[in-house]
Amino acid sequence: MKVFVTGASGWIGSAAVAELLERGHEVAALARSDASAAAVEAAGARAVRGELTDVEVIRRAAGDADGVVHLGFVHDFTNYEASGRIERAVVEAYGEALAGSDRPLVIASGLAGFGVLGRPIVESDVSGWIGPDAPRGGSEQLALSFAERGIRSVSVRFAPTVHGVGGDHGFMARLADIARSTGVAGYPGDGTNRWPAVNRLDAGRLVALALESAPAGSVVHAVAEEGIPMRRIAELLGAALALPVGPIDEAQLAERFGWLARFVAADLPASSARTRELLGWEPTHPTLAEDIAAGGYGTAARLAG
Predict the structure, then answer these.
(1) Where are the domains of the chain?
(2) Residue ranges in the chain modelled with pLDDT below 70
(3) How many CB atoms lie within 10 A of CB 133?
């Protein structure tokens, strides 16, 4: 299959591209810089120069492909509304390029937007992020609606913690940076709120499986560990960085965690039981605790240096 991928040089995207290539697919990857182009070409993909704002470039590349994997996103949390508008425009372009073709469209989504359910989020739960003014431009529901237009659209909801050793610039890396800069591995309140987690290599394999065989209009969860208490995450980081661990009052969350404060206190346990049954996906790579212990987010020696 000829697959067009956005976000291909990123943390998750690079794992997905490696998996796609290993499974015999040809990959064309959007690259916004010389460095990104060099990275995807070194991995074995063909670079398509452009940015997520280059909608015509994206539309043409999608139209020329047998399938699309959309993992790119403008992570500007200082202007999240603009990022959402860009996301929606890109997904709309996919709808125009793929309509009536029965070709697959796999998009990245997340597990926020559900509120407190009192139970793990499951694949059949509908996100509250709906419509063009919603976070991420309501792209999940927009893409899933394409199933009615002859597109095999699939949403992959990634755990907020997509971890690994080397190269992570996401939430977990930011928590480690904050712990280093403040001298304390902190957690909100009593630390019982939970974040699900998945290794980036397991996530990359799920993307490939979703592209190959997930039914139209389906949602799958890239979740290996259903919910790790934030206190436990702080303890793991504290042990790795040789830092004390302690609670952060609600009034101090914004000062301590910055833009991450909106997420760090969320309770987001999530199940992937349906995903595993549907696609035969079984995570096999290291857990979050194992990656932190292996030095994936720094060590005491690094801190001292």
Answers:
(1) 2-160+198-224, 165-195+226-270+286-304
(2) 77, 300-305
(3) 12
